[in-house]
Amino acid sequence: xxxxxxxxxxxxxxxxxxxxxxxxxxxxxxxxxxxxxxxxxxxxxxxxxxxxxxxxxxxxxxxxxxxxxxxxxxxxxxxxxxxxxxxxxxxxxxxxxxxxxxxxxxxxxxxxxxxxxxxxxxxxxxxxxxxxxxxxxxxxxxxxxxxxxxxxxxxxxxxxxxxxxxxxxxxxxxxxxxxxxxxxxxxxxxxxxxxxxxxxxxxxxxxxxxxxxxxxxxxxxxxxxxxxxxxxxxxxxxxxxxxxxxxxxxxxxxxxxxxxxxxxxxxxxxxxxxxxxxxxxxxxxxxxxxxxx
Length: 293
Prior knowledge:
Blueprint: H1 6-26, H2 32-36, E1 38-39, H3 50-53, H4 61-82, H5 84-117, H6 126-132, H7 134-137, E2 141-142, H8 146-159, E3 164-165, E4 174-175, H9 176-192, H10 201-222, H11 229-233, H12 249-275, H13 282-290
Antiparallel strand pairs: 1-2, 3-4
């Protein structure tokens, strides 16, 4: 546990404690899964805070294990690459986004269900029908960190697209970018399938969608790179190429200073990959920050 970065470690601990807390509260007659799980927004048990709390609830031990295993496996790498604050912001934001997309998907499911049974029902009558169907709609509850976890998986694939990983039962390693693409296709096909497998596929896709949009936004506002690492490796990528008055030796000196700064940033990034963000000295953190502005 000592080698796990701070945010990933705390997220693991919180999720595990929350899971066992469900059993403790059940013994005194309190169903915190129902209180903190994300209900359909037209259901009577819906509360806005559930968009945050649902990502710390898990349906069973298997659900918890696979989510926490993925968080440990990919979260450590992503947090070491980004630092704790950015990683936590990304994780929570994508979890909220996943819940939002799941709510939209459930609304369309509800609308299609109502249309099939009441073809003449108007759009404004949905609220009345939802109120009369409270018992059924309150059962539409989403729990789990999967939306945020899938976003972390996407981030890993965008940071290290060429990294090769082994996935059981495939006998050969595959590149991270193809691994992520494969998961997107599987989730999309599963979401569009007619079978009800009680898995929130649209929440998974929603987390990845919000993650992708967030990373692309960060990329476009920091560098011309196609992945997060280039935010740091191309700090001078957007400089204007017009003549700025430097000629001869002045140009050579400027380029040498630029090259020296870039080599120092590359050295710091290599250190992060090997030992984690927390291994940096205050001077190295300051250098990385100044060259990333």
